[in-house]
Design goal:
Two copies of one chain form a homodimer. By secondary structure, chain A is α/β, with parallel strands linked by helices. Chain A folds into two domains: about 260 residues, Aldolase class I (TIM Barrel), CATH 3.20.20; about 40 residues, no CATH class. Helix content of chain A is about 40%, strand content about 15%. Chain A has twelve helices and eight strands. The first copy, chain A, has an eight-stranded parallel β-barrel with strand order 1-2-3-4-5-6-7-8, surrounded by five helices. In chain A, helix 2 packs antiparallel against helix 9 and helix 10 runs antiparallel to helix 11. Chain A is globular. Chains A and B meet through helix 7, helix 8, helix 9, helix 10 and helix 12 of A and helix 7, helix 8, helix 9, helix 10 and helix 12 of B.
């Protein structure tokens, strides 16, 4: 099971931030950063680098912006070999706001994109690479975008970009293991000079098994989150991934302790995990937005009606 | 995805009974039976047929014994094409208490066994077969029993028994998809005249994906439970399996409605699902009994300490 090239990225604060307006308090983020560091995880992603010209810092928490100063403050004094990552969305970042790597605590910038925006993603990733960062491109909603335009996009990344990794992102939690196998093989066939990564969503309880499937077919960059926190049903639970990898460089115990102390109480306040409307969205290969809206309504447990509404929308 | 030979068995009441002393009330069991029937599921397993000479009916609920009369009462008046199953454990049933099929509402009897008890299991299964029932043998704790004695046991079932199906039972939720592939192929290679079945446990969120893996390698008998109820972390959620199979004979809507009305309230009273001590037991390939005991103690959220206790026990 051990493969030296495998790198694990914890995106607890980044993907978890999607369910609490990126508003984790600094004690919580320090606790996560400390545990992830002690556990020997390779990367930790602390949030998005969105432009404050586009989003108000009054409306969102710190981790929507990930200012260099904020990152320096919460990591200060904690012994760590874990590299720091932030994510940017195409169209939501101003490149001139990203300082050269030499002036920043950030090591890696991941560019999240849809297939249709691949040119913009490559432009951003190359800018970050030129400034000294590790850069990746993460192709979202891939279960909806599996036509020939996907191969063209991956080919373009291979030829035109300086990214280190290209991620398959199952935003809708719709992939089963056979499509994961097929996608990883497709990516590997095109990407001669780059690694393949996988980011799962857990709508159908498949984020962990799909990550294993990606590993089997030689994806080497893997995302997880503590206790599976993340948008809608959440992500691949980091603790399960560490249990599977059995890499001697990892220590699962700080993560278990962190779950006991921080995540069990947090789960009482915000919701993620196996929840039927997210499962329905996953099995119908739909964005979880309708399910997320349902969970905030009085009809939150009306699963049959919700299923029927999604199915009939599909027929229109 | 559609394969006509695939048969789905719902064991909600049987495996769910392991977490509430088999004490579901009759309204609940009727609701489950009705929804399973409307959903078009092939089999429903209502409990164990234990001998009342060995267990007191004062200490356990009805579904520990599954008297023919009780089954007739709760199924009465409900239109159904779903076959009825009960499970027996080797050493806990008196064969003379099982009437001929012609006098019973039961269609199938599944014999749960460890590899070491295979002779007794074959004796029981053949007795039931002779009385007119469909019979199966379900090999439990298979993640601990993968040596050559497993092949011998499966060979013996092939040669000496009249069972219809032999199930791989991942009692500890310890299998990943590669071991599932390997086990299903091993079983298929030996079992020329019988089907292979799969029963997963969800300790590591792998019950559903392992069931898919078993399907890919031609296991045709698949267990699920409504909302994944079952011992410890529970089983493969039936609703996810139906979403995957996309067999036109199934209708997921009665199951979704049943979850809304019966299982969301039930989950407030009894516990199953993704709970870290069960995940730890699964990743260490251990019986969940220590984790189940922990969950009833004041230390129920002390995950790190629990992990360390299991790991050090393993070193003794």
């Amino acid at each position: 099971m051990y493969r030296e090239q495998i790198k694990v990225l914890d995106c607890t604060i980044r993907d978890g931030g999607l369910i609490n307006n990126h508003d984790f308090d600094e004690h919580f983020v320090r606790s996560v950063y400390k545990a992830i560091s002690e556990a020997g995880v390779d990367y930790v992603e602390l949030g998005y680098r969105n432009s404050k010209k586009l989003f108000s810092s009054k409306e969102y928490g710190l981790w929507k912006f990930c200012d260099d100063d904020v990152i320096k403050r919460i990591t200060h004094g904690i012994q760590s070999n874990t590299k720091i990552s932030v994510m940017v969305d195409v169209g939501r970042v101003e490149v001139e706001e990203v300082m050269p790597k030499a002036e920043s605590p950030i090591d890696m910038i991941r560019v999240a994109t849809y297939v249709k925006d691949i040119d913009k993603a490559i432009f951003l990733a190359n800018d970050f690479h030129q400034k000294g960062y590790e850069a990746t491109i993460n192709i979202m909603a891939i279960s909806k975008d599996q036509g020939p335009e996907l191969d063209e996009a991956v080919q373009q990344i291979e030829e035109e970009s300086h990214v280190k990794v290209v991620y398959i992102v199952d935003s809708f939690g719709a992939l089963y293991q056979e499509p994961v196998e097929s996608l990883v093989k497709r990516f590997k066939a095109i990407l001669k000079t780059k690694e393949v990564g996988f980011h799962g969503h857990n709508h159908q309880q498949l984020a962990f098994s799909n990550t294993i499937e990606a590993i089997i077919h030689n994806a080497n960059y893997l995302d997880g989150t503590v206790y599976g926190i993340g948008r809608a049903a959440g992500n691949c639970p980091l603790e399960l991934l560490m249990g599977f990898l059995k890499n001697p460089k990892f220590d699962i115990r700080p993560i278990l302790d962190l779950i006991s102390k921080e995540f069990i109480p947090l789960r009482e306040k915000i919701e993620w995990g196996y929840i039927i409307p997210y499962a329905i969205a996953g099995m119908l290969n739909e964005h979880p937005r309708a399910a997320m809206a349902l969970r905030k309504s009085e009809k939150k447990e009306n699963y049959k009606e919700f299923y029927e509404s999604l199915v009939s929308t599909g027929l229109e």
